[in-house]
Automatic annotation (TrEMBL):
<dbReference type="GO" id="GO:0019139">
    <property type="term" value="F:cytokinin dehydrogenase activity"/>
</dbReference>
<dbReference type="InterPro" id="IPR016166">
    <property type="entry name" value="FAD-bd_PCMH"/>
</dbReference>
<feature type="domain" description="FAD-binding PCMH-type">
    <location>
        <begin position="59"/>
        <end position="238"/>
    </location>
</feature>
<protein>
    <recommendedName>
        <fullName>cytokinin dehydrogenase</fullName>
        <ecNumber>1.5.99.12</ecNumber>
    </recommendedName>
</protein>
<dbReference type="GO" id="GO:0071949">
    <property type="term" value="F:FAD binding"/>
</dbReference>
<keyword id="KW-0560">Oxidoreductase</keyword>
<dbReference type="InterPro" id="IPR016169">
    <property type="entry name" value="FAD-bd_PCMH_sub2"/>
</dbReference>
<dbReference type="Pfam" id="PF09265">
    <property type="entry name" value="Cytokin-bind"/>
</dbReference>
<dbReference type="InterPro" id="IPR050432">
    <property type="entry name" value="FAD-linked_Oxidoreductases_BP"/>
</dbReference>
<dbReference type="InterPro" id="IPR006094">
    <property type="entry name" value="Oxid_FAD_bind_N"/>
</dbReference>
<dbReference type="Pfam" id="PF01565">
    <property type="entry name" value="FAD_binding_4"/>
</dbReference>
<dbReference type="InterPro" id="IPR016164">
    <property type="entry name" value="FAD-linked_Oxase-like_C"/>
</dbReference>
<dbReference type="InterPro" id="IPR015345">
    <property type="entry name" value="Cytokinin_DH_FAD/cytokin-bd"/>
</dbReference>
<dbReference type="InterPro" id="IPR006093">
    <property type="entry name" value="Oxy_OxRdtase_FAD_BS"/>
</dbReference>
<dbReference type="InterPro" id="IPR016170">
    <property type="entry name" value="Cytok_DH_C_sf"/>
</dbReference>
<dbReference type="GO" id="GO:0009690">
    <property type="term" value="P:cytokinin metabolic process"/>
</dbReference>
<dbReference type="InterPro" id="IPR036318">
    <property type="entry name" value="FAD-bd_PCMH-like_sf"/>
</dbReference>
């Protein structure tokens, strides 16, 4: 097992080319590899401080050094260097640093700043109409750049995250979910090939047919088995426009039942299927819009606020249907047919017609607004859960009403929407509830630097309640402190994960911030 050493124990030799050459046999490392690693390692305070924090701003773990790779060979050399030591040092790959619990940190180890590889040429589109189109994308590339590059060809992936300023390697190491997941699956099921640098420093191309063990393990694998440096993503003709609709409910049972009915129509080419579905809570004393998107017409804000204050919680169903010039004439009828019979409040259906890019990048304007106010780089005590369909009513009463509402926990968006298990692949490392339909719940709170712990206590209260009634939830973007908790989280996959870790990262150097094998 990798052990974290103090900086003087190994850091000096890493930064000295001369000493590197004296420690490592030439047969293991060509001189150029040693030079590249040493040249691209930094230990200045700015680099270390940047690598010691993340979007959550709740954990600080400084590394000994930061690697700014000029090519993937630098990463390979670094990993082989770590393994050559009598006691290897830890390594963590960092994309945009959007984790919230220090998952991309490496205390006294080395953080790899993947953005240093960022090069537009590392997004390439190939294929043809008969065999299909694909984008080969560097793991360090952000999804917004993938979108812009593929749209130049009139193409796009089908599965997205709500926020596009995340790296491809980062979301594929978790799952990558959004309102499209019910129909198109998470991002991890929308990849056909990967290039991965394993924990042994091997560069391996893998797919469902070739080196399939590594392929399935890395997808949703939390960075435990390798660093994704390339992904091949299927592309499809991109729409131009989006009809975007929100509807309000006071009755949770009707809200949930309507969501479940809509996601039951989920074939990728099925008539009447929506392209996106999410839900969110509007809470007492909170605004009708939140930083993730401004949607409701200002002229209706007072009416919506009055409704929310009257009922304390309003449930908002959000759907979208894509279209282009070939389908715009039938769009309204298809959407009306899909929404016919839904039990939302009369007079509380709102529509917008926006471009495809504006819809997918809808969170960006809120981010820029918060940044301008100094409210973006603050603590984010987030909690993301998967809840079985059979327990969602109990979650509503026991958590939304008895905990969240009573604690006035309305410091950020609260998401609640269902997915279909059949759109996931159980061979992958990501874990979800056993039921065919399950809900994702996201408490996306922001706080001040002096009160985030109080918000996090509410998160712990939510988890205690779920455990006390044996709700069989699963955490998404999981955070645990003990290996026993991780074993419980992974369930029947735990033995396979242990074996795969020994196979591809035997010295357990990768992604120590999760504290799965490096607690």
């Amino acid at each position: 097992m990798a052990i974290n050493f103090s900086i003087p124990a190994y850091f000096g030799y890493m930064l000295s080319i001369t000493r590197l050459k004296s420690f490592i046999p030439k047969s293991l490392f060509p001189d150029d590899d040693i030079t590249a690693v040493a040249t691209n390692l930094r230990h200045d305070s700015a680099s270390l401080n940047s690598a010691a924090t993340d979007f959550g701003h709740m954990v600080t773990d400084p590394p000994a050094a930061v690697l700014f790779p000029s090519s993937i060979n630098d990463i390979i050399s670094l990993i082989k260097l770590a393994n050559s030591r009598p006691v290897p040092f830890n390594i963590a790959a960092k994309g945009c640093g959007h984790s919230v619990r220090g998952q991309a940190m490496a205390r006294n180890g080395v953080v790899v700043e993947m953005a240093s590889l960022n090069d537009p040429t590392r997004i390439s589109v190939s294929g043809n109409a008969s065999d299909g189109f694909f984008a080969d994308v560097g793991g360090e590339q952000m999804w917004i750049d993938v979108l812009n590059a593929t749209l130049k060809h009139g193409l796009a992936p089908t599965s997205w995250t709500d926020y596009l300023y995340l790296t491809v390697g980062g979301t594929l190491s978790n799952a990558g979910i959004s309102g499209q997941t019910f129909r198109y699956g998470p991002q991890i099921t929308n990849v056909v090939e990967l290039d991965v640098i394993t924990g042994k420093g091997d560069l391996v191309s893998c797919s469902a047919e070739r080196n399939w063990e590594l392929f399935h393990s890395v997808l949703g694998g939390l960075g435990q088995f390798g660093i994704i440096v390339r992904a091949r993503i299927p592309l499809f003709p991109a729409p131009n426009r989006v009809k975007w609709v929100r509807m309000l409910y006071t009755n949770f049972s009707e809200f949930a039942a309507d969501q479940e009915r809509l996601i039951s129509i989920n074939g990728s080419k099925q008539n009447g299927a929506l392209d996106y579905l999410e839900g969110l809570l509007l809470m007492h004393d909170g605004p009708p819009d939140n930083w993730r998107s401004s949607f409701f017409p200002p002229s209706h804000h007072s009416t919506i606020i009055s409704l929310v204050n009257q009922h304390s919680i309003i449930y908002c169903l959000e759907v979208a249907k894509y279209y282009d010039h070939t389908s715009r004439h039938t769009l309204d009828k298809e959407l009306d047919d899909s929404l016919n019979g839904l039990r939302f409040l009369s007079g509380y259906k709102f529509e917008k017609d926006v471009s495809y890019v504006e819809f997918l990048n809808r969170v960006r304007s809120g981010e820029l607004s918060l940044k301008s106010q100094g409210l973006w780089d603050v603590p984010h005590p987030w909690l993301n859960l998967f809840v079985p369909k059979s327990r969602i009513a109990e979650f509503n009463s026991g958590v939304f009403k008895d905990i969240v509402l009573k604690r006035k926990m309305n410091n950020g968006p609260i998401l609640v929407y269902p997915m279909n298990r059949s759109k996931w692949d159980d061979r992958m490392t990501a874990v979800i509830p056993d039921e065919e339909v399950f809900y994702t719940i996201g408490f996306l709170n922001s706080s001040g630097f002096d009160d985030w712990e109080a918000m996090d206590e509410v998160n712990k209260e939510i988890l205690r309640f779920c455990n006390s009634v044996d709700m069989k939830i699963k955490q998404y973007l999981p955070h645990y402190r003990t290996q026993a908790d991780w074993a419980n989280h992974f369930g029947h996959k735990w033995k396979r994960i242990q074996d795969t870790k020994k196979q591809f990262d035997p010295n357990m150097i990768l992604s120590p911030g999760h504290k799965i094998f490096n607690s």
